[in-house]
Amino acid sequence: MITRVRIHNFRLFGDFEIEPRAGLNVLVGDNEAGKSTVLQALTLVLTGRSDGRPATDELTPDWFHRPAVNQFFDDYTTADPQPLPTIGIEVFLDDADDKLQKHRGVHNTLGEDCPGLRLTIEPSEDYADEIRGYLDAENCPRAVPVEYYDVHWRNFADEPLSRRPAGLGHVLIDSRTIRSQRGVDYHTRQLLHDFIEPAERAAISVAHRRARHEISTTYLNKANERIAEHDELVEGRVVEIDFDQSGTSSWHGSIIPRIDQVPFALAGQGVQAATKIALAMSRSAEQTSFVLVEEPENHLSHARLMRLVASIEALAGERQSFLTTHSSFVLNRLGIDRLRLLGPSGTVAKLTDLPADTVRYFQKLSGFDTLRLVLAERLVLVEGPSDELVFERFFRDRYGRGPHEAGVDVVSLRGVALRRSLELCAALDRPVIALRDNDGKDPDHWIEPLRPLLVDGRRQVEIGDPTDGATLEPQLVRTNGEGPLRGALSLDAHDDVAEWMSNNKTEAALRILVAPVTLSPPPYIHRALDLLG
Question: Taking the complete model, does pTM exceed 0.90, yes or no?
Answer without folding.
Answer: no
